[in-house]
Amino acid sequence: MVQDNHLSCEASCFHWWIIFPVTSHIATMNTFDRHLLDIEAHIVPRKSLTQSFM
């Protein structure tokens, strides 16, 4: 009887740990290139808040 120790999976998982940091780094840089973090601030002065309640 031959036992299958999933050696091919272990080898591919080892290669994935080498490739994963590179792919995650590239994906992070693509996120910054697409300006997904472009956030506009909506600042409301305190005086206008008190005027809207009166």
Characterization of the model:
The structure is a single chain. 65% of the residues lie in helices and 0% in strands. The protein has 2 helices and no strands. It starts with 6 loop residues before the first helix and ends with a helix. The model has no long low-confidence stretch (mean pLDDT 56).
Topology:
Elements (H helix, E strand, L loop, with lengths): L6 H27 L12 H8 L1
Brief summary:
The chain is mostly helical.
- Amino-to-carboxy terminus distance: 86 Å
Rg, rounded, reads: 26 Å
Quickly count the helices. 2
Mean pLDDT over the residues: 56
Contiguous runs where pLDDT drops below 50 for at least 5 residues: none
Beta-strand share of residues: under 5%
User: What is the helical fraction, as a range of percent?
Assistant: 55-70%
- Describe the global form: rod-shaped
Class derived from helix and strand content: mainly alpha
Sheet with the most strands, sense and barrel status = none
Number of strands: 0
Give the topology string: H per helix, E per strand: HH
Keywords:
54 residues; 2 helices; rod-shaped
